[in-house]
Design a protein that fits this description.
Layout lengths: L1 H22 L1 H7 L2 H24 L10 H8 L14 H9 L1 H22 L4 H20 L9 H17 L5 H19 L1
Helix pairs in contact: 3-4, 3-5, 5-6, 6-7, 6-9, 7-8
């Protein structure tokens, strides 16, 4: 009971301390000073504002898959030789490349699919429910991270997202055949859109 929990807690705290020492706590502290965070916030806010302008410029169909750097630069000619490849917001980048209607459909489709998955997982047997909900939480964390970065453009994170999606689906109770085809099609379409 309590002694076992205390050992686990000590192991977790020890692992975190070792990881912090390995990464270099002074380097992390320097990286996350209030001044540096304020500068980064200002830079990202400016990028997001300019990305919205680029999305409006290429509304409704977008500039094309992979065309963000060109669309952004065309909207921001003052940048000169400096190139911004990603706006550090997956949803804005998708709006610039695919158009705002497609970006909204993808985001809403992902949110709806994740919500449905979580609801189905509540009906799963206990041992599968918690694994599935853990995977769904991982997917939600990646989708939340996408609001301030571009994790789904990094192949390893996209692969992790796909694995979490598959594991959560395997843990969930089976759908009726007709519903399963629709959900599978929606999931496949969302995954293909993110991979492009």
């Amino acid at each position: 009971g309590g002694m076992r929990r205390a050992r686990w807690l000590a192991a977790v705290v020890g692992a975190v301390a070792l990881a912090a020492a390995a990464v270099g706590l002074p380097g992390l502290a320097e990286r996350y000073t209030l001044e540096r965070l304020a500068r980064e916030k200002d830079g990202r806010m400016a990028m997001w504002k300019d990305s919205l302008e680029a999305a409006r410029r290429y509304f409704p169909a977008g500039a094309g898959a992979g065309a963000f750097p060109y669309a952004f630069r065309r909207s921001r000619p003052y940048l000169g030789a400096y190139t911004i490849d990603h706006p550090h917001n997956e949803y804005l980048e998708t709006a610039v490349e695919w158009g705002a209607p497609a970006a909204a459909a993808i985001a809403l489709g992902l949110a709806w699919a994740l919500w449905r998955r979580v609801r189905r997982l509540w009906d799963a047997p206990s041992e599968r429910r918690w694994i599935g909900l853990g995977c769904a939480a991982g997917m939600a964390a990646i989708l939340t991270h996408a609001a301030v970065d571009f994790p789904l453009r990094i192949p390893a994170i996209l692969a992790l997202f796909a694995v979490l999606m598959g594991m959560s689906e395997a843990a969930a109770p089976a759908l009726a055949p007709a519903a399963g085809r629709g959900a599978a099609a929606a999931t496949a379409a969302a995954a293909a859109a993110l991979a492009a």
